[in-house]
Design goal:
Radius of gyration: 16 Å
CATH architecture: 3-Layer(aba) Sandwich
Number of strands: 6
Strand content: 5-15%
Largest sheet: 6 strands, mixed
Oligomer: single chain
Order of helices and strands: HEEHHEHEHEEHH
Strand order of the largest sheet: 1-3-2-4-6-5
Distance between the termini: 22 Å
């Protein structure tokens, strides 16, 4: 007897939810009760993995990545591109305001293993450099070139954009972000259905 595809997906989803929750607990424990952790948010088996470098004040207040202005701007952008927001997972490289890269690399590595995205969007130069430093298995170095799809691993592509947080206050910066980010819409439209 074969197991239906939906049942297999549900088992993977339950496993991913359990692993993401356990990772969130470990990040909180790393804060030792004195630092506010900022955990990733979104679908635990998302096709698109959004990556910023460090949490902003609103994210620190809520403890959730992409909470606040950046998240609202991204939601509007995803709607404009006709990308399903339920297929997105977003996180920061650093999990604490005073976090360091050494502490944060294992967390990001695990998030990538759990989510298994088809596309990673590295927002800003620090996020791109950090992603390259994680040494994800079979990964190729991502160049600073924006607005083009790059091979990250045999199964994951990468897109580099300007930093969303820095792009919110000036029109030229917004335009630069949008010109790079809109490639996500083209990529999404060409994604084969499940």
């Amino acid at each position: 007897m074969t197991v239906a595809t939906d049942e297999i997906y549900e088992k993977y989803l339950q496993k991913a939810i359990t692993e993401i929750n356990a990772l969130g607990d470990e990040v909180a424990q790393a804060g030792a009760g004195t630092r506010v952790p900022v955990v990733g948010s979104g679908h635990p088996l998302a096709d698109v993995f959004l990556l910023k470098y460090a949490p902003r004040a609103s994210e620190l207040q809520e403890g959730v990545a992409f909470y606040g202005r950046a998240g609202n701007a991204l939601l509007k952008s995803l709607q404009r591109l006709r990308v399903d927001p339920m297929a997105i997972y977003g996180t920061n490289c650093l999990k604490f305001a005073d976090g360091d890269e050494e502490e944060s690399r294992p967390f990001l590595l695990r998030e990538l293993h759990i989510v298994q995205p088809k596309l990673v969007v590295a927002m800003g130069e620090p996020a791109r450099v950090f992603l390259n430093s994680v040494a994800f298995p079979l990964s190729s170095e991502i160049s600073a070139s924006t607005a083009e799809l790059q091979r990250f691993t045999p199964t994951i592509q990468a897109l580099v954009t300007p930093d969303i947080d820095e792009a919110l206050d000036e029109a030229p910066a917004k335009t630069a972000f949008w010109n790079a980010f809109k490639l996500l819409g083209t990529w999404w439209a060409e994604l084969p259905p499940y």
